[in-house]
Amino acid sequence: MLPVCTPLSPQVYPGGFRRCKPTGGSVYPKDRRWISNPSLKRKFVTVQGEFYKIIDVVWRKTCFLPCLWQMLDTVNSDIKASMFEYYNERAKEYEELYTLGKGPASIPDPEAYKREVNILAGIAGEFCYGSVIDIACGTGFWLPYYVRQCSQVTLIDQSAKMLSVCKEKVSSLEVQDKCNLVCDDFLAHQFNVANFDCALMGFFISHLSQKEEQEFFEKLKSILKPSGKFLIFDSTWNEERARTREKQGKHQRKLNNGRAFDIYKRYFEKDDIIRMGKQYRLTLSLGHVGRIFIAATGKLK
Questions:
Q1: I want to staple 131 with a disulfide (CB 3.0 to 4.6 A). Which of 33, 152, 256, 261 is the partner?
Q2: DSSP state of 137
Q3: Which H or E element spans position 232?
């Protein structure tokens, strides 16, 4: 078990370790010939320097980086309030992303959005069945494409305004008898174990920190039946997006009225999906990797 990081004192070596002397005095060799021999002295100083470099690397990998990752998680939590407010206030205009192709400025091509939305809609319609949970459902945009072949649908989202729009959609589709709307945080909500045949996660994982991602998949495993499956929709990472933004971190989003908010966002490529499958012991398959969106289907091992 590695020790918890503690504040460094002024006498500590930059790598995090003191230049300690062994009991009895000098750190230098007992044979004092190096004092009169510059070549030996240089060799000893070089070896000593390399030793401290190794110690420095070990410290950074075992102590500094975990602390840094925890710090990043803290940064993520600091913008959660802004992110929640953004999506809550965006409820009435949220579906413009899908219907009008009004996505973030990184890919200003409305027709590309519309084309890929049709692809994802087809995947949702073919994949979802039985008892379904739509996680971070938002306005319930994907509901019309899969609800007919489902016996029960749970739509969960933290935003009351998003769920209000979703409720209107449920009524217009006349599927109130099979839909249950839940206003809560998925990670905090208590579900029955092995309760769902299928789960849909649309653009949710990309707003989670690494720690929350792990919590998410642990919970997903508990609520799905042993034969359960799940479907992931999210945003693709590619060179086009890399010109204007980072792959993960804080991003700015604006409402139609110009009001700006900070959100936490990650983008995904094929290797990220493969990493999730290995890390969480899941069977994952890529259903679509496009210019805008990425889709993956999965099941429990």
A1: 152
A2: -
A3: strand 224-235
Which CATH number does the domain housing residue 108 bear? 3.40.50.150
Per-residue pLDDT tens for 55-103?
Answer: 444 444 444 444 444 444 544 567 899 999 999 999 999 999 999 998 8
Note whether 64 and 89 are same-domain residues: no
If asked whether residues 168 and 290 sit together in one domain, one would say yes
Domain membership of residue 5 (yes or no) is no
Q: How far apart are CA 211 and CA 214, in angstroms?
A: 5
Instruction: Tell me the H-state helices in the chain.
Output: 33-36, 38-59, 65-78, 80-89, 96-99, 110-127, 143-146, 160-173, 210-223, 239-242, 270-279
Of 292 and 26, the structure prediction assigns the larger pLDDT to 292
Q: What is the DSSP letter of 157?
A: E
Residue 161 corresponds to which amino acid? Answer: K
Q: What is the pLDDT of residue 2?
A: 37
Q: 234 φ, ψ to 5°?
A: -160, -170
The CA-atom distances, in angstroms, between 135 and each of 25, 69, 74, 146, 263 are 64, 26, 24, 14, 19
Q: Which domain range does residue 47 map to? A: 33-78
| Domain count across the chain | 2
Each residue's pLDDT tens digit, 244-254 = 999 999 999 99
CA distance 35 to 41: 7
Instruction: Indicate if 143 and 274 belong to the same structural domain.
Output: yes
Whole-model pTM above 0.85?
A: no
Same domain, 105 and 244: yes
| pLDDT on residue 301 | 76
Domain final residue pick, 43, 78, 113:
78
Handedness of CA 111, 116, 117, 122 (dihedral sign): positive
